[in-house]
Specification:
alpha+beta, 7-stranded mixed β-sheet, about 230 residues, 7 helices, about 25% strand, single chain
């Protein structure tokens, strides 16, 4: 079954490549601004669902030849990673500037926060139909199955000084990462321990994602054979 990773994240791409999966990349851009009074669970679930919708919309705007190259049904994989402070309410997203990053880091310093990564697998079927007005064949996309998981990992930071935060921000690494740090990069020096999935903190809980894909693929086969 074809898999489309609807993400421009190089970290997610590299993790799937480690699993030796065949997949294609489809980058999507959405508004990631949290809504007022939106809980972390509501936010992250909205993000993966919105990314899936954006991917389907982007596919629908491609040519018929591109549609024909897809094996139906196929899976669109979307993912989103956030940090959540120990209060269980405050969402740590990508920093918009230095001041925002410092504010998050001061709360995370010498403290435990959680990193949540949600993964949604959306199974889509091509449904060619004739367009009455032109007698041409168009290919709408029909969602036939959706499943979602959320992996939570506890991360403990060492005490951070202003100089440490300044040096890290100046490295350029924090700008595109939830919570403003990358555990696979220079940010690893701030992490004293984790409890949970390391790959989830990187951006994709690999073992759980592979199990999700396997479950959806099996479900599709069972449906065909029933």
């Amino acid at each position: 079954m074809d898999i489309i990773l609807a993400s421009g994240s190089p970290r997610r791409r590299e993790l799937l490549e480690r699993a030796q999966l065949d997949f294609t990349i489809l980058s999507v851009d959405i508004d990631e601004t949290p809504l007022d009074n939106e809980s972390p669970a509501e936010y992250i679930e909205r993000m993966v669902a919105t990314k899936a919708d954006a991917a389907i919309q982007k596919l629908s705007e491609t040519s018929q030849a591109d549609h024909d190259s897809l094996t139906s049904p196929f899976i669109i994989l979307t993912s989103d990673t956030i940090g959540v402070l120990s209060d269980g309410k405050t969402v740590l997203v990508k920093p918009v500037d230095r001041e925002h990053a410092y504010s998050m880091w001061q709360h995370m310093s010498d403290n435990v926060h959680e990193v949540w990564t949600a993964v949604q697998a959306t199974q889509v079927q091509l449904s060619p139909i004739a367009e009455p007005s032109t007698s041409k064949t168009i290919t709408p996309f029909q969602i036939i199955n959706q499943q979602r998981i959320t992996e939570r990992t506890e991360v403990t930071f060492i005490p951070l000084t202003t100089q440490m935060m300044s040096d890290y921000w100046d490295s350029g690494e924090p700008t595109d990462k939830a919570g403003g740090y990358g555990i696979q990069g220079l940010g690893a020096a701030w992490v004293s321990r984790i409890n949970g999935s390391y790959t989830s903190v990187v951006g994709l809980p690999l073992a759980q994602t592979l199990a999700l894909i396997k479950k959806m693929t099996k479900s599709s086969v069972d449906t065909v054979n029933s």
